[in-house]
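#onboarding

Welcome to the new folks! Below is a worked example of what a typical request in this channel looks like: someone posts a single protein sequence, and someone else replies with the predicted structure as tokens. Don't worry about understanding the tokens yet, we'll cover that in week two.

Example request:
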Amino acid sequence: MRRAHAAWTVAASVLAALALQARAQPADWPDPAAMTFPPIHFQAPAPQKAVLANGITVYLAEDHALPLVQGVAYVAAPGVYDPPDKVGLASFTARLLRDGGAGGMSPDTIDEQLAYLGASVEASSSDHFASVSFSSLAVNIDQVLSIWQDVLTRPDFAQARIEVERQRQLEAIRRVVDNPVQLAVREFSYRVAEGHPSGAYPTAETIDAIQRSDLVAFHDAYYAPASTVVAITGDFDAKQMLAKLGATLGRWQHPLAPKPTIPAFNEHPAPKVYFVQKDVQQSIILIGQPAMRAYTPSYDAFTVADQILGAGGFTSRLFTDIRTKRGLAYSTGSQLTQGFAYPGIFLAYAFTRTDATGQVLHLILDEIARLRDEGVTPAELGQAREQIVNQAVFRDTSVAATTERTARVQLLGLEPGYFETYLQTVQSITPAEVQAAARQVLDPHGLVIMVVGNASAFDEPLSDFGQVVTIPLQ
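Example response:
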């Protein structure tokens, strides 16, 4: 919060300085507001695509600006594959790929070798995929590729490191109840995804249930050439790099197990008010419901609606009304998560004074209803489209970012060039299409409401907003 305040102070000082400069502007200078420029047409660099002998697709892009090479393997081994009684297994497995030793090398040996080489190898997991990445000086790429391949394909899962990771995760779970925002997000996710693994969070019981044999089995089942896509960029010759990969990663042979059976996503969770009593000075309010799958026509239009409602920052409706005009929340807005095999989630939020909880709930609900019932103005639409297109520039800040996104597109089963098509679609969306998408998603009678706060100080009982379910702290 202090950092944000400091940034705001600096911004105000800059604006004041610019105002002084404006008064001193020579009379013959053109008016900045009247200046026009031709549209910018950006074409992201296209990486070279190749397929190794074992079926792994590789995207390569040379970038000789620095003597560095970086790469990542994306693997279809997502968190939604977790068994219900072992939630957290995919993430646990990914972390131990690197931290548990690999290829017969102990974790300490890997640490020492990477430090000596000035390199890194990391692994992680999300709801959509796992990833194993590396960064290396170009002169050391052979040694680093060897370590990276071992981490990806031959993890050792050292028992001692498993216990270290277990204790780390158990401590993180214990601390969630001390953080009202994390607590609200966890409990909201449980309810809005209602029974689907995308809304599940690990508990002490599920983490304690995970054993080394589970990590080995998960890796054996889902880490395979058929589930892997690779992106590598940097200071190398593409033909030579492809030969290196063919002689190493291309020799990896491992069968892929069938995908686990995942429960169907309930797109209409119970519209209730969930509440956690916590003696804090502000209330955490989350309101939302399932939306739609990413990068469909209705998704494209709803991203614009979301931008206007709350994702657009200072200019959004929620921020303008709740924070700027009324001063009722330090942070407020909305967001739309991406879902590919299942719907994403729409979420509006505010962190407000405890004694303004009811008032802010009404304001958020009113803005959601207004977006659905009244639509958006041409001016709002134009501003939202401009914001989305301008933000897109930051997705192509490097050759690596573009190449890695191309690899993710393939792994997620999207059409090549989906993002460029999305930007084109956004620029042609009409107010009627935005309202139609809002009507498709936003159901005033189907919203899940989550509140963490001190009920004794609320300005209005939560029962005014629907059936209240009190969640005990665990």
